[in-house]
Amino acid sequence: MVAATIIFATHLHAQQAAPQLGKSPVKDVVNAMTLEEKAKLVVGMGFRFASPVPVKRDSSAARRDTAAAVPAFRLPPIDPADDIPEKVPGAAGRTHAIARLGIPSITVSDGPAGIRISPIRNNDSSKTYYATAFPSGTLLASTWDTVTVKKVGVAFGDEIKEYGADVILGPALNIHRNPLGGRNFEYYSEDPLIAGNITAAIVNGIQSKGVGTSIKHFAANNQETNRNSVNTIVSERALREIYLKGFEIAVKKSQPWTVMSSYNKLNGPYTSENPELITTILRKEWGFKGFVMSDWFGGTDPVGQMNAGNDLLMPGTADQSKKIVDAVNGGKIDVKQLDLNVERILNIILISPEFKKYKYSLKPDLTAHALVSRAAATEGMVLLKNDGSSLPLKSAKKIALFGNTSYDIIAGGTGSGDVNKPYTINLAQGLANAGYTVDAALKTAYEQYIADAKAKRPKVRGFSFAPPPVIPQLINDAATLAQKANDNDAAIITIGRNAGEGADRKIQNDYNLSDSEKMVIKGITDAFHAKGKKVIVVLNIGGVIEVASWRDGVDAVLLAWQPGLEAGNAIADILSGKVNPSGKLATTFAMDYKDVPSAKNFPGKELPPPPGTAAQPPSPMRGRPSEVTYEEGVYVGYRYFNTFHVKPAYEFGYGLSYTTFSYGALKINSSSVNGAFSATASITITNSGKVAGKEVVQLYISAPGKDMDKPAEELRGFAKTKLLLPGQSEPITFHVSADDIASFDTPSTSWVTEAGTYTVKVGASSENIKQTGSFTIAKDIVVEKDNKVIVPQVQIKELRP
Ligand code: BGC
Predict the structure, then answer these.
(1) I need a surface site. Which of 211, 356, 513, 792 has the fewest CB within 10 A?
(2) Cα 400 to ligand 1 centre (Å)
(3) pLDDT in tens, 279-325
């Protein structure tokens, strides 16, 4: 009896002695962890690529979940100890719980356009778990409106929280270096100021709900071809000014809970294994406080990843934990380093809903969020062409609706960025909801044609990232078109494009319209113009396409992007004039693919096998060893087109409205106090037209270019007016400090604002400058001295003006 009491008391003491997360300081919890526990915490679990989920409608939406197995790439087996029920079925992964220390498991879920989880659980469709598909990244950036984007973030954050996840794997903000980038739809812009500020807005919105984000993919991950092996070779200046700047802005303005390192190598090592990127730049220079996780199966060396400060390896394998334990025992990882990795993860777990035992409802307000999605979608659609005020549709009530994607609209791209949404409103439904009559016979013909084509598609066997095969356009003969032109008031043609992770887009039949698409546009235009009726093209695309060769034939072009689940309603809002378009391009539309500065070296080249060895087949996970050199340097997007005087089809910042705006006089005040330079540029915008509208006002600055070559101008500020009634005005003031206009000086590894006269240009696009002014900086200002890191290991022949 006595002995039993003693044993019991000792056991109790041991239990009481173990510090508990939240009750004891984090450092004490770390100290109490065994090496094995630490190595478990820094390696994730719970990725069930293969768990089958019934497909409800849109097969592309659920493809990633329905897959039975990866054809060639095999997932490592799940550790039996980790084979426990998922907290959030369909989420991308979670961390290990350590119950002894009160450490719960947190759940991370894709992706940037909405929470990506399984909509049906245990084959029981009486309850569903659909999520709102918000508009794609390219659309959100085209709003140029951080207020709207933050609202999307708040609604999105609510769904993350109410579905029981802790961290969303997004937003994604890699630069649109090349229009063929397969994930450009998820990304925002060719310009880092837009990318960084839109990211900060959505992160602040999401995190205001008490859940976290993972801004990705850090960094210089601008293509999908060989994405797990490609070495991105880029100069220090282009890296800092173009590819890192957006991340820097986002980190400083929104402190995301986590950052996701990318798949690629960067000037040598994998990003996830590079302390210069993850520790020196991200943490020391920018002050990032959260933890860094790898992309799924990214990198190859868990030891290097830990040492680099890539704290969490996702989705995690038992083998990685073992290697980490061995490395600590063998002196390859200092236990202090591992403690730091662990501590950073614990600090985030501490603020997570899971730790706080938040009672999630599983019932987010999808109806309210659909309205947020629809409103945001209308804010980011860009009116590219509107001859003779063809839009909004005034008297036109009977619509001949052409193009497969009018009936089978693309709400968002494929891959991890796809959302299992409850429905998608197509354009036929959207127009009908808005009171238009959609030609019934055409509708039936298209619906039948699309259903037949889908039925004939080969079944997707195994896991695939690829978008579903394109259905060729339905061709109507001339007699039918003449009849349709007779029976209807106007024609609308939708051109759709889809893409997703794992592959870049192609030039033929994707970037360029197919011959049959051009034929369809021409046939419809001939028939409708013969009857004096308008033809409107709606672009339902995730990335840039060629427009110059066919746009002259049609009356109006609306760039609707991939607008999320309310797609058709949002497009109808713009077409009808219920909402006046106010989106502008955050990415340039070139005249021809060849004009794109990276066209010459995208997506790089495969490397020959080492001497004396035979070429190997591509690895299912890693593709082939390859490299891509960013020879265009900082001259990406409009920085190239404007500096090198290459005329684009539609320039950066471009977008039409149903009203007009006048720009008042530009007032510039500048001052230099104790060497700290600052300036303001103020202007009043007036709605000079006949309907209410919003204007995106852009501030570009041309630097003197004394010692450094400079782009002709760079975006240094932007603002969107409120809804201005006809005749109404709004004053806008931009603030500029020396660091906003500095460039990265490679020899001195510092950001320098050169002395000289700066031209301030305020305009409606990068080419449509309305007012100019100037200020002068008397002496060079060294704004910040940085570390000499991520230096390219080869000479880059960089483009210079
Ligand atoms: C993608 C990430 C995603 C992750 C988890 C990866 O393939 O690159 O963006 O978050 O999978 O699904």
Answers:
(1) 356
(2) 40
(3) 999 999 999 999 999 999 999 999 999 999 999 999 999 999 999 99
